[in-house]
From TrEMBL:
Gene3D superfamilies in the cross-refs: sex pheromone staph- cam373 precursor domain (3.10.570.10)
Pfam families from the UniProt entry: CamS
UniProt xrefs under CDD domains: CamS_repeat_1, CamS_repeat_2
Name of the protein in question: CamS family sex pheromone protein
Domain of life, per lineage: Bacteria
């Protein structure tokens, strides 16, 4: 057992420590109960936020990085896919591991070497633990790849920790995000090609991968800690092609309780960029609303203003909108005026939807932030 400290995670716009979201702050209600008798264990209560982030484990005063940290970036996957794989998995985990009862820690039970071996193709002699299929038949490497595409793209592990009265912690739950190709892209001798992966194949193979990985973890692969009696949640994630403007999405989640058969549920989730042909076709009313919002913002200045939105849908309803605004300005007063105007427009157009707006200069530097949540006044921060 190891001694730990606890750090409250919070949204960047809320670092001042004020309760911008209203209501009375109740530290005991928002933080897992731990013993105060042990001076080596400290708790910084989470600042209230709509996301209800977990408090995070510190070891010897430092954040605990997972062993597979950054592995997806090393493989060349898009930042937007990796960000939502991580944050979306944490959201899914909250259904089983209540943030009031558990602490968050990046995965420590799977090593980078193990995950790498699982992602590589199966080979009876060279890589018997590989989960992707062996190379297919064909007259050349391109044809062989196309006839047997990879399906599993990445494995993300998150741990949810319990702390006892003595201040020792152990894994109380594990969440796994299995990222699955929607399109397998490959190259050989300078020639590139790709193979689309059907949703039915993603689901079938993803559930098979999940059962295999859970069994291996319960049998003790890489870990000194016994996970045989630890509940494990596995979420299946559809990774988008590298040139896609949208992030991937989760489509199925399975709960593996010790000694029980897994329970699977579907997730209806989607990411959409505004403006885009897909938005016009699949979400016409929302596309028209964003176009009007964008037109109003662009009309505020004579200078060109770029406005792009990224929405998340759950069960075909928009549940979150992020907007990036790029401006060319002469003075900070212009930034202040535009930020105030955008805050008012957000409240008018998206009364019932949480919206975050990042306003940046053409150079890329962040100039101001607008954060809006229904039934609360918009929060504005100007970066000096």
């Amino acid at each position: 057992m190891k001694r730990v400290g606890i750090l409250g995670l919070a949204s960047a716009v809320l670092l001042s420590g004020c309760n911008f979201f209203g209501g009375e702050e109740d530290d005991e209600a928002n933080t897992p109960d731990v013993s105060e008798a042990d001076d080596s264990l400290t708790v910084v209560p989470s600042i209230p936020s709509e996301e209800n982030y977990y408090a995070s484990v510190l070891q010897d005063g430092a954040y605990v990085h997972g062993q597979t940290r950054g592995y997806g970036l090393d493989l060349g996957y898009s930042r937007k896919d990796l960000d939502w794989l991580e944050l979306g998995l944490e959201d899914i985990a909250k259904e089983r591991f209540d943030p009031n009862d558990y602490f968050f820690q990046e995965g420590t039970h799977l090593s980078r070497e193990t995950v790498k071996s699982w992602l590589l193709r199966y080979d009876e002699e060279e890589n018997p633990n590989g989960l992707n299929p062996s190379l297919g038949d064909g007259d050349d490497p391109i044809e062989q790849e196309k006839n047997s595409p990879w399906v599993l793209a990445n494995v993300l592990e998150q741990n949810y920790m319990n702390v006892n009265d003595e201040g020792d912690y152990s894994t109380g739950g594990v969440a796994l995000g299995l990222s699955l190709y929607s399109e397998y892209e490959f190259s050989h001798d300078g020639k590139s090609d790709s193979v689309p992966i059907k949703a039915a194949v993603q689901e079938e193979k993803g559930m098979e991968f999940a059962e295999t990985i859970v069994n291996r973890m319960r049998e003790g692969v890489d870990s000194e800690e016994d996970l045989s009696d630890v509940p494990i949640v596995v979420a299946l994630f559809s990774q988008q092609p590298k040139d896609s403007v949208n992030a991937g999405h989760f489509f199925k989640v399975g709960t593996f309780e010790p000694g029980e058969n897994p329970h699977w549920e579907n997730i209806n989730q989607e990411h959409v960029q505004f403006p885009s042909p897909a938005a016009n076709e699949d979400h016409r009313d929302d596309a028209d609303r964003f176009t009007q919002f964008r037109t109003d913002v662009q009309a505020f200045f004579s200078n060109n203003i770029g406005v792009v939105g990224r929405a998340r849908y759950e069960d075909n309803q928009m549940v979150k909108l992020n907007v990036d605004v790029n401006i060319q300005y002469k003075g900070k007063a212009e930034v202040v005026a535009l930020t105030q105007y955008i805050a008012g427009q957000v409240e008018e157009y998206y009364e019932n939807i949480p919206v975050d707006v990042n306003i940046s200069a053409l150079s890329g530097s962040l100039e101001s932030i607008v954060s809006y949540h229904p039934d609360r006044e918009p929060f504005i921060h100007i970066i000096n």
